[in-house]
Amino acid sequence: MMKRVLFGLVAIGLVACAAYASFYIAPEERTMGAIQKIFYFHASTAWAGETTFFVCFLANLLYIWKRIPQFDWLGVTCAEVGVACITVVLITGPIWAKPVWGIWWTWDARLTSTFVLWILYICYLLLRTLVDDPDRRALLSALFGVFAFIDVPIVFGAIRWWRTQHPAPVIMGGPDSGLEPTMKAVFFFNVAVMHVFAAFLIMERYSLEKSKHDVELLQHESEAR
Amino acid sequence: MALLANAAVLLGKEVRTEFRSRELLSTTMVFVLIVVVVFSFTFDPTTNESRRFGPGLLWMAFLFAASLMLQPCFLREQVNDTLGALRLAVSDPFAIFLAKICANTLFLLLTELLMLPVFAALFNVSFRVQLPGILLTFFLGSLGISIVGTALAVISAQARMRELLLPLLLLPLLTPILVVSTEVTIRLMQPEPYLEWQGIGLMAGFDVVFLTVLWLFGEYLLEE
Fold this sequence. Notes:
A: mainly alpha; 6 helices
């Protein structure tokens, strides 16, 4: 218990440090000004969300293969935390886009694929509420999770072929892309912090899922007696 | 080889079952017609406007129709308790999927081809010159819808609120097919039509990827 509280405090402390670094250490962007600061939070949350969905995909595959309930708990946990991260991304994105692009939203490749990703994992969570048998629920949602994860790169490819407006990647982009060194350091610090924070949320939600399972088990036992 | 032989026999069964009643085909066709007519009230259906909005409207109608059409394909087996017998009858459970996918593609393609002249007449657009391109687009699009739809029909058949769940799971997964098939059809409806091979490649890629996923994981979907 003590360890969890300590980890939680460290994670929250790190988020505060990341916010401080974004506002006071990173230099202000020349053309966009202060609104660019949202990039540190927006992009790093997106990276953390995508990592979380990747872990969810691995957990789904492992559940299909091994049928160990712990992988199912990890799957649902990661899906929920991922949806929370992408919700933040979908809120912070338009806040940045309105002053910079002049519009809240555009149906560009990255925006649309992120939106579809978010909808797919909401459907994944919805599916879980509609199957009563726990083993069936775990298997069916794991299989849908595999379908959903594989679909997202295809959505991205299809819409990029069609049209795209999102700024070209500044991280790992072309030869002319890139960030100023302090900005880059602050950005990667934010990415690391968001991953730590997502890991904290996953651990907390996982222990909740475990407790839920224990309660269900106790209920079955008491009913059997 | 045994897989294909099993799938062919099962496909025969699916086609016979449908053509005895023709319930699915007639209902789907009427549904597509209603969607097309209802959508036409939302814009001014001149030839130019129809060229812009028509393909999207057409594919939306096909997608909605498919989400209704795919529902009974596994539900029928579940209600009659024949899925277990089907599993025992085939050496590879993928044969069941292959047969259902082929049947669904065939029914969907048939609906699309019968609705195409009606759409062309109602919206004053001509498809005659681009017919091979249209056929290829319709085939790849219908195949993609059927592959994903058949897999999700098994999932939704085992859940509560299954009628609502299938479109919920299916429509977001089919975003790439909707985007690409609409864009390819728009180009085929231009005054100087051409076939966008990149789009055709994307659709074929989608079909191959999801057919492979279904081949790898299909047997888990049919577990008792």
